[in-house]
């Protein structure tokens, strides 16, 4: 009986962790470039009362054993890097990656952050920066007298400058790719950092080495499907309630045992 209480307790904790993951996904349904998370669970160790394949008293081999489970645990929370929907903004500094890859930005401590959020802006000195002022790497500086800005699908940045006939080349936007993007470390603010699980970044021009192309005047929406999240939340809630009923039933059975005379 005590084993059932422990197993149900681990089940309630696991479903609570599932709800926590789903709530974070739903909270970021309108976050640009957000990638949803998925909770993955493993069953705990089993108590082997009789191992499968042991010899029985009759000299035969038992076709099955007696293994009693002890519950469930959270194994990992994976991030799903499927592409989100395209939002057309017509803003010349809004960019999206159509395929694999991440924009590189320089964080305040000098390290490199990686993001799918292409909501870039111009700073006071003309640099292309994120909403928090983190500069894009490689740096792109737009002249103050630029009449228009164009970013090609291959990442080449040009601007039509007042008084000049030919467009001026402002630089080349490069993106980074990872062998295992699910291994990136989430640091918040739509940023990721490299980890031993993700591997070293492969920096290349858009469209090369399996990376995606750039789209100007577009943003990548969150890949959270609100309907799927709501369905999973209902399933998690029902599983939580059933585990709580197991604990209640176990408590009532123990109470009945204590009342026996």
Briefly, what is this?
This protein has 261 residues and is α+β, with helices and mostly antiparallel strands. The chain is built from two helices and 20 strands.
Describe the structure.
With 261 residues, this protein is an alpha+beta fold. The chain folds into two domains: 115 residues, no CATH class; 135 residues, no CATH class. Helices cover 23% and strands 32% of the residues. It contains two helices and 20 strands. Strands 7, 8, 11, 15 and 18 form a five-stranded antiparallel beta sheet that branches. The chain has a three-stranded antiparallel beta sheet with strand order 12-13-14, with no helix packed on it. A two-stranded antiparallel ribbon has the order 1-4. Helix 1 packs antiparallel against helix 2. The chain starts with a helix and ends with a helix. The relative contact order is 0.20. The model has no long low-confidence stretch (mean pLDDT 93).
Order of helices and strands: HEEEEEEEEEEEEEEEEEEEEH
- Report the end-to-end length measured between terminal Cα atoms: 19 Å
Count structural domains.
Answer: 2
So how many helices?
A: 2
Radius of gyration: 27 Å
Rounded average pLDDT: 93
The count of DSSP E runs of length 2 or more, i.e. the number of strands, is 20
Taking pLDDT < 50 over at least 5 consecutive residues as the criterion, the unreliable ranges are none
Q: Assess the beta-strand content as a share of residues.
A: 25-35%
Helix content: 10-25%
Strand count, sense and barrel status of the largest sheet are: 5 strands, antiparallel
Coarse shape = elongated
Provide the structure class: alpha+beta
């Amino acid at each position: 009986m005590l084993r059932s209480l422990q197993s149900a307790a681990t089940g309630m904790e696991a479903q609570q962790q599932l709800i926590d993951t789903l709530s974070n996904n739903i909270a970021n349904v309108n976050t640009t470039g957000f990638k949803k998370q998925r909770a993955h669970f493993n069953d705990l160790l089993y108590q082997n009362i009789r191992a499968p394949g042991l010899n029985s008293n009759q000299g035969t081999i038992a076709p099955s054993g007696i293994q009693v489970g002890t519950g469930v645990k959270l194994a990992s929370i994976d991030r799903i890097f499927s592409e989100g929907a395209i939002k057309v903004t017509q803003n010349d500094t809004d960019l999206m990656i159509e395929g694999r890859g991440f924009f590189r930005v320089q964080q305040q401590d000098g390290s490199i952050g990686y993001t799918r959020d292409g909501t870039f802006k111009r700073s006071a000195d003309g640099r292309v920066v994120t909403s928090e002022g983190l500069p894009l790497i490689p740096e792109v500086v737009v002249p103050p007298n630029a009449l228009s800005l164009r970013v090609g699908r291959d990442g080449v940045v040009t601007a039509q400058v007042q008084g000049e006939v030919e467009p001026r080349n402002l630089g080349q936007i490069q993106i980074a790719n990872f062998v295992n993007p699910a291994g990136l470390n989430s640091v918040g603010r739509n940023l990721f950092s490299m980890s031993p699980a993700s591997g070293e970044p492969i920096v290349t021009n858009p469209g090369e080495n399996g990376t995606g192309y750039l789209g100007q005047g577009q943003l990548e929406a969150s890949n959270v499907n609100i309907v799927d999240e709501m369905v999973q939340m209902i399933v998690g809630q029902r599983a939580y309630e059933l585990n709580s009923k197991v604990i209640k039933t176990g408590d009532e059975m123990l109470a009945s045992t204590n009342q026996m005379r």
